[in-house]
Amino acid sequence: MNAAPFAILAALFVASAAAAQPSESEAVDDAIACLAIEDAEDRLACLEGAAKTLQVTRIVREEQTAAAEEEEKANFGLGETRAPNQVAEAPEDFGDEAIPDVQRDKDGKRIKAINAKVVEIRVNSLGTATVSLDNGQVWRQLDSDDKKLHFGNSERLLTAKVKRSLFGNYMMTVNELHRTIRVRRIK
C-alpha cells in the first residue's frame, strides 16, 4: 500500500486547520484584550475562549513542525543538487541565504545525520556497494570511493549512520563493520 496519498491528505488537513485558526500572536492579543473587560464572569469566559484558541493554534503549529521534520528525514540526501538554504520558501525569505545570521540559523536546524538498520547490502562485480535501509532509503557507494565493505556473517544485524560531510557529500558508516564509505542516495 502506498503511503503517499495518506501523507498528502494529512498535510492538507493540517494546512486547512491552520488556515481556519488565527495565529498565536492573534490569540495572545485576544487574551490581552479580555483583560479590559470589567465584568469578572465575562472576562473569565473571554480568557477561557482565548486560551482554547491559543491551545489549538499551538497544537497545529507543533503538528506542522513535526510533519516538516518527518518530511526532511524522509528526503534526507535525496535530490539535493543545490544547497537547500538557497530555496526561498516564502517571498520574504528570498535572498536571505546571503545573511550570515540567517545562514547560521538554517544550518543549525538542518538534519546532520540519520541512523537506521541495514536491510540489505549488495556488492556488484566492481566492489561497489548498494545499501538498503529499514526506512526505505537506498544508498549507493560512489564510484570514486575505493573502500570495500567486507562482512562475514550475513545473518548479523547491521546498523548504519549516514551523515553530511563537507561540500555536500554523504558518508555512511556501517557501525558493526567499522567501515565508512562515501555514498549518494538513489531512492
Please render the helix and strand layout as text.
Blueprint: H1 4-20, H2 24-34, H3 40-74, H4 100-109, E1 113-123, E2 129-133, E3 138-141, E4 159-164, E5 170-174, E6 179-185
Antiparallel strand pairs: 1-2, 1-4, 2-3, 3-6, 4-5, 5-6
Helix pairs in contact: 1-3, 2-3
Polypeptide structure, described:
This protein is of the alpha+beta class. The protein contains four helices and six strands; from the N terminus they run H-H-H-H-E-E-E-E-E-E. It has helices at 4-20, 24-34, 40-74, 100-109; strands at residues 113-123, 129-133, 138-141, 159-164, 170-174, 179-185. It has a six-stranded antiparallel beta barrel with strand order 1-2-3-6-5-4. Helix 1 packs antiparallel against helix 3 (40-74) and helix 2 packs antiparallel against helix 3. The radius of gyration is 24 Å and the shape is elongated. Residues 81-85 have low confidence and may be disordered.
Outline:
By secondary structure, the chain is an alpha+beta fold. 39% of the residues lie in helices and 20% in strands. Helix 2 packs antiparallel against helix 3.
Globally, the shape reads elongated
Beta-strand proportion: 15-25%
Strand order, largest beta sheet = 1-2-3-6-5-4
Whole-angstrom Rg: 24 Å
Stretches where pLDDT is under 50 for at least 5 consecutive residues are 81-85
